[in-house]
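Why this split exists: single-chain examples teach little about how molecules sit against one another. For that reason, every record in the complexes split bundles all components of an assembly together and asks for one structure covering all of them. Below is a record exactly as it appears in the raw files.
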Amino acid sequence: MPLSKQYWKARAIRYFFMTCAATSVLIVVLVFLFLGKESIPFVAKHGVGELFGEVWQPVSFEDEQFGILPLVTGSILVTLLATILAVPFGVVSAIYIAEMASPVEREIWKPVIELLAGIPSVVLGFFGLVVVAPLVKETFGLTSGLNALTGSILLALMAIPTIISISEDAIRNVPKSYKEASYSLGASKLQTIWKVTVPAALSGIVAAVMLGLGRVVGETMAVMMVTGNAAIITFSPVESVRTMTATVAAEMGEVPFGSDHYHALFVIGVVLLCMTFGLNMIAQKVLKKYRIG
Amino acid sequence: MSMKPRNIGEKIVYYSMLGVTYAILLVVIYIIADVVVGGIGTISWEFLTEAPRKSGEEGGIWPVIVGTLYLVLGTITFALPLGMAGAIYLSEYATQGRLTRMIRLAIVTLAGIPSVVLGLFGLGMFVIFLQLGASILAGSLTLACMILPTIIVASEESLRSIPQSFREGSLALGATKWETIRRNVLPYAIPGMMTGSILGVGRAAGETAPILLTVAAFFLPTLPTSVFDQCMALPYHLYILATQLPDAEKARPMQYGTALVLIAVVLGFNLTAIVIRSYFRRKYRW
């Protein structure tokens, strides 16, 4: 039987939509390909060892140095501080909204979280520059408020919406029977929340925090505007630091195309890509296992 | 179930949890209020319709607004059709299999890529490899890659919320799969698809890092005339005004004004999305 025109039309439509959906696969492949392609010249010329140096001095007449360690530690420092600040606020709020808030309160919270998530990072950076930095400077009696702490306060604000919304889903996903069993044994509401609900939702909460971390590590503008951008290795919150993202964004505009410096910035891009990709994959695995989101 | 705290200890825990939660609300209100109060005095007809003067310390932000508008339009042109079509595949056609798994993995991965890394990609691929130069086209394509996952995920969710009976009814009457999708699924799913897409576009309007590397210029004497021109943009303008001027204090009013316009644009998109969502929720019920 010859296949009808209608059959071919239906197939064509199907393949059209399939191609559109597959474009996202193509984009991801291209992202990895292009970042790899542009960073290979650096690795080929200098080797990987150069990257583990402790000095980032890409522009110099005598001795250019491309050690990304200070940038990596800078990113890790602000990320850790931001996590320490964001986790208590994010998780406690998620518990409150999921288990303790009245229906009316819940209606208010959804747009508030969307609002916080919607503030552009450059606006948060500006707010940090004008309001948070002077506050940090005075509170700790420093000469400048542009440091890791100020950056991590802003980053915490950006991670909080992610942490709240995914943790809330995880907490709501805890079967009702768990709570009922706890109540029937005479436990109070708070005892049930902290001893039954939260432990049961813990893996989802951990995944939420990791997704928040992924956002924090990759955040650029706010960090670039308020951390002072000194490429030094330090673990003091009140020192100025320079993150990987800020380095790429600040220096890419001024490098000559094809120079060592240019390719070195792409290497930083690859490191960032791998870090966020790893965090995301682990978080997704956890979320999938517990069917959240 | 509502149970009151039992003793003084539980009361303390209860109220401190409430306090922590509402502290976030206060911070959000404070940030918005600070930008609104700081910027409202700057907003004037002149500010909105004139070009910047004296490296942005005076004058207005008209070309900056136009630039952001062009970028948003460009981003929508690429991301919206592609994202919606991708969502139609995932919701209506896809079967469990390797390709579907790969597409889903790609969407999650793309959503997690930092915007500055996407900027690097845009620079390497669109600006240099495809020789588009720093241009509105290169910037829009980069932003489109960034918001594609948002549009696909939201659109798919909207399509899946249409009851299966809508499809079965149409198919039972002899309609083809495509006729069913076009006449009995899409019309009801479009509002939801739009909502998600608008949220994505709002994000694109506020992003700085990708356009920093692919399109933005701080000052241009004329408005862009083609998609191959560079343009100014609100987030980049605010970044430069806030960090690159020798006398930042003097430019405060301009900084706050720009921040307010930017927040108004982004939150305007979000608000539109919320209004559309609640309007159609009331209109369609099944």
